TrEMBL record:
<comment type="pathway">
    <text>Porphyrin-containing compound metabolism; protoheme biosynthesis.</text>
</comment>
<comment type="function">
    <text>Involved in coproporphyrin-dependent heme b biosynthesis. Catalyzes the insertion of ferrous iron into coproporphyrin III to form Fe-coproporphyrin III.</text>
</comment>
<dbReference type="GO" id="GO:0016829">
    <property type="term" value="F:lyase activity"/>
</dbReference>
<feature type="binding site">
    <location>
        <position position="220"/>
    </location>
    <ligand>
        <name>Fe(2+)</name>
    </ligand>
</feature>
<dbReference type="Pfam" id="PF00762">
    <property type="entry name" value="Ferrochelatase"/>
</dbReference>
<keyword id="KW-0456">Lyase</keyword>
<keyword id="KW-0627">Porphyrin biosynthesis</keyword>
<dbReference type="InterPro" id="IPR033659">
    <property type="entry name" value="Ferrochelatase_N"/>
</dbReference>
<feature type="binding site">
    <location>
        <position position="150"/>
    </location>
    <ligand>
        <name>Fe-coproporphyrin III</name>
    </ligand>
</feature>
<keyword id="KW-0963">Cytoplasm</keyword>
<dbReference type="InterPro" id="IPR001015">
    <property type="entry name" value="Ferrochelatase"/>
</dbReference>
<comment type="similarity">
    <text>Belongs to the ferrochelatase family.</text>
</comment>
<dbReference type="InterPro" id="IPR033644">
    <property type="entry name" value="Ferrochelatase_C"/>
</dbReference>
<keyword id="KW-0479">Metal-binding</keyword>
<feature type="binding site">
    <location>
        <position position="318"/>
    </location>
    <ligand>
        <name>Fe(2+)</name>
    </ligand>
</feature>
<keyword id="KW-0350">Heme biosynthesis</keyword>
<protein>
    <recommendedName>
        <fullName>Coproporphyrin III ferrochelatase</fullName>
        <ecNumber>4.99.1.9</ecNumber>
    </recommendedName>
</protein>
Amino acid sequence: MSTEAQKSDSTVLYSSVAAADGSPFVEEPVSYDAILLASFGGPEGQDDVIPYLRNVTRGRGIPDERLEEVATHYRQHGGVSPINQQNRQLLAAMEQEIARRGLGLPVYWGNRNWHPFLEDAVQRAAADGHRTLLAMATSAYSSYSSDRQYREDFARVLGQNDGGTGLGHGDDPVTIDKVRLFFDHPGFIEPFYEGVKSAVENWLAEGRAGNEIRVLFSTHSIPTADAELSGPRDREFGEGGAYVAQHRAVAEYIMARLREEILGSEGVGWDLVYQSRSGPPSQPWLEPDVNDVISELPASGITAVAVVPLGFVSDHMEVLWDLDTEARQSAEEAGLAFMRTPTPGIHPAYVAGLVDLIEERLQGTPAAERPHLTDLGPWYDVSRPGDCAHSQIDFRPAAAGVAP
């Protein structure tokens, strides 16, 4: 099948030849010639904040006055989100690991909502002669904004409408595949486990009993209707869809390993909690809120709480504000010892794991040989029909998947 046929086919958009038949796993080598690091983006100065928030909320008709209320979180940090600098560090770390392995692949970084934009990154890659790109998005879990929207971004950028570059068309088109979601890859989980283990060990060493310690695994809340639509249509994940199931499976793995490795930790309990809700009160979002749970812990005899930012790959503004500020304050008010464990950031295991995922696609590693630490994985290379739909938005073209 030619690349042009792939592009026009109703089931697969802008994919490499190997991914064009719609099989869930690409188990043959693919000669990718560049990596696309795709992220959310964030402002880098006070003047950037409102334009950035307009991009994030585009199409929702939110007035600047309301955006300014959200902007206060950024204003308190000089109008700078940490995410772009973290992506620069991740980019450098990935380049170093890719070079160490002799893979010879350049990495181009582009954002959805702020400079450098994805359009610019893809255009730079194309100008440098690269045509078969493999995208690595800085999101590990299934949901519209963390998975499908990136694939829509890729299709839009390659297309000829809505400001697209048109690079996915013509006789020598650019294609973009996407690595599988890596929520249960060992390299992603290891930094979280180390943080939980350190916090619990320290509190046990202080003389606290295991049943005085609670671990709260926190992730971004999303509308309940969208959570139910996360994941493909042909799998049943229970309440909250794949989004909740994936987070819960990772938390269960971490706590089971903790019980095996730390004597006396059997009594340590845990909860999956949510943060950063932004929808109207009338719209159901995933609960419980991390602050509400913290306030109730003393009544259960808890004296120490470790909050694990399980849904985040690095210290985003939501981590700095919602956890380091608000959750910490909630713990202080409840009289609890508090620890926020690290995000993966540029932890060596995480960086190595990301490059493992790249090599997996370069080599066409069979699905049965791919590392994963939960029963839900390994996740798909080519997204399945209906995967990560949005409850209020019709299906739009999306690369690296089968229609819709």
